[in-house]
Design goal:
Blueprint lengths: L5 H25 L1 H13 L12 H8 L1 H6 L7 H14 L2 H12 L14 H14 L3 H11 L11 H11 L5 H9 L6 H14 L5 H7 L6 H17 L6 H14 L5 H13 L6 H12 L11 H15 L8 H11 L21 E2 L2 E2 L4 E7 L7 E5 L10 E5 H14 L6 E7 L3 E10 L2 H13 L8 H9 L16 E6 L11 H15 L2 E6 L5 H8 L5 E3 L1
Parallel strand pairs: 3-6, 3-8, 8-9, 9-10
Antiparallel strand pairs: 1-2, 4-5, 6-7
Helix pairs in contact: 2-5, 2-6, 5-7, 6-7, 6-8, 7-9, 8-9, 9-11, 11-13, 12-13, 12-14, 13-15, 14-15, 15-17, 16-17, 16-18, 19-20, 21-22
């Protein structure tokens, strides 16, 4: 029976209001952590493909809740958007369980076990890292600090990658105590922990971290950790260019110069860039030694030889001395320095970089400067389409062009580029369509014999099939096998990628996911990637080059 008295009506209204508020709190507040748990479990089971189309409305409402779907209808567009929204709400008031869960997501892909590329672990990890950086409150911060120190007690299901994720997350927290926590981990016994701590200090780029990094670097024996420390010093110098004091600059440069020739060309490349930023006559003799090592083709010196390193060292020497000797004449530089050392006066910084654009080789107009070069060539069906190219006289008017096919022109450009490589260079080719074919592993010397083998390969290439660009990039950079802190083989220093279309087959076809995977793999490899887009401009192909230190040519 309906209530009749005023008291009964008031009690009923209060009960309805309390029930509604409790339901709202359950639906919109306290349940977000549990929904994120369900999202994580479904994603790990492969039931939430991030690159697929819109999520079904009934599925989205069960997973995210009707209130969240109504407030943020973008979650219906994709489960990527759903993760972003859940993380944003959990980060507002995470509690200990929420911090632990987001930290677990932020550790995705940092372990030693490979993950299915289709899961797009890079997106999950980076999105969770951003959420951790936005998480506020002393409880959340202390939880992250404890994980960053490796305090396993109190963390159920502790895994080493949780410490790495916590260290990375603290890089975005502007707190003096946090900075000291990170610097303390530069002395950790685990290589990966030191790498993560140095990476976080590089994100913070605080000038006061210079001393800790300069102290840790001479003791370092692990290449990825040393590379992270050098990157951090470089980031600090760049971020504090106008305010870095003389002692910090001196300490950073001394530690960097002492690391030259200790690891490999990738570390040396960062040292060279530091020499350009911290202008000092102390850098000139070590830079000349870099040119000498790059010119020494003996196998024992191979890990210190790189065309990109030689180019960078040459540019640095020209800027520091104002002298214009050639990059492949280190003996001239050595004689110059022996003669001028005592009376040398450093010239003012140049108005612009003295970049020497001359090169003996080019691929679709892009200079080839590497000494270990890999060419990735699209041979999918669309490469049989027509292409207009200038005649041999170099003009491009309507009367002076001829018609060929895309694949035929790719073969011509590849042959011309390899033919012009110096004899001490090495090269390889990856041809891809549905499948991937690697020729030249290990790389082939740029000799007459190597070029003769290339001619046989070019004769065998024919267009057909779809575009498995991820598979080709994986073959070039070992993307799927790259793990955090792993010391990889720096086999190549320059990569050229030619394609005439968007990725259409293979384990990954989503351009954003491919770019993220390449960035992760190339963070340690430091391969300069150039791209050629045949048939028109491609945003994906352009970004692939620009985000990896290269240039993109459109034909």
């Amino acid at each position: 029976m309906p209530p009749t008295s005023l008291r009964d009506r008031l009690l009923l209204c209060l009960w309805i209001a309390a029930t509604a508020l409790a339901g709202a709190a359950q639906d919109d507040g306290g349940s977000y952590v549990r929904r994120l748990e369900r999202w994580h479990a479904a994603w790990r089971d492969g039931r939430l493909p991030l690159a697929s189309g819109a999520a079904a409305s009934d599925v989205a409402r069960r997973l995210y809740g009707s209130a969240l779907v109504d407030e943020a209808p973008q979650v219906l567009a994709s489960h990527r958007a759903g993760l972003v929204e859940l993380l944003a709400r959990v980060a507002l008031d995470p509690g200990q369980d929420g911090v632990d869960l987001v930290l677990r997501l932020a550790a995705t892909g940092l372990g030693k076990e490979p993950l299915d590329p289709g899961l797009q672990a890079d997106f999950v990890r980076e999105t969770a890292q951003l959420a951790l950086a936005r998480t506020t409150g002393s409880t959340a911060l202390e939880r992250l600090r404890a994980a960053a120190r490796g305090e396993r007690k109190g963390f159920p299901g502790w895994e080493p990658e949780l410490q790495l994720a916590a260290l990375q997350a603290l890089g975005a927290v502007r707190n003096q105590i946090v900075r000291l926590d990170l610097e303390a981990q530069l002395a950790a016994g685990d290589d990966d922990v030191r790498t993560a701590a140095a990476g976080a200090l590089g994100v913070r780029a605080h000038a006061n971290s210079t001393g800790a990094l300069a102290t840790a670097l001479p003791r370092e024996t692990d290449t990825p950790a040393a590379l992270a420390m050098l990157d951090a010093l470089h980031a600090i110098v760049l971020a504090n260019a106008a305010t870095l004091d003389a002692r910090s600059s001196r300490d950073a440069l001394a530690a960097a110069l002492a690391s030259l020739g200790r690891f490999d060309w990738r570390c040396d490349l960062v040292v060279v860039e530091l020499c350009r930023r911290i202008r000092s006559a102390r850098s000139i003799a070590p830079l000349i030694a870099v040119l000498e090592r790059c010119a020494d083709a003996r196998s024992g010196h191979d890990k210190f030889r790189s065309g990109t390193l030689r180019e960078a060292a040459h540019r640095a020497l020209r800027e520091l001395t104002g002298t214009l000797f050639a990059a492949d004449r280190p003996q001239d530089w050595r004689a110059f320095w022996d003669r001028e050392r005592d009376a040398f006066v450093m010239p003012p910084p140049p108005g612009s970089s003295l970049d020497d654009t001359r090169t003996s080789s080019g691929f679709f107009g892009i200079p080839v400067r590497g000494l270990r070069v890999l060419f990735v060539i699209d041979v999918s069906g669309s490469m049989d389409e027509s292409l207009l190219v200038p005649r041999d006289n170099g003009t491009s008017s309507a009367e002076q062009v001829e018609t060929t096919t895309r694949i035929a022109q790719a073969k011509v450009e590849l042959w011309n580029a390899v033919e012009a490589l110096p004899a001490d260079a090495r090269f390889g080719v990856i041809a891809f369509s549905d499948g991937v074919r690697r020729w030249g592993k290990p790389l082939v010397p740029a000799t007459d014999r190597g070029r003769a083998s290339l001619r046989d390969l070019l004769r065998s290439l024919a267009a057909g099939g779809s575009t498995n660009l991820y598979g080709a990039l994986d073959a070039a950079l070992d993307i799927a096998d790259t793990r955090f802190g792993q010391d990889v083989d720096a086999e190549i220093d320059e990569l050229f990628v030619l394609s005439d279309g968007q990725p259409s087959s293979g384990e990954l076809t989503d351009p954003e996911a491919i770019l993220a995977a390449v960035a992760r793999a190339n963070r340690v490899r430091r391969v300069r990637i150039h791209t050629v887009a045949l048939g028109g401009a491609s945003e994906f192909v352009r970004r692939l080059a620009e985000e990896n230190g290269g240039v993109c040519a459109v034909r």
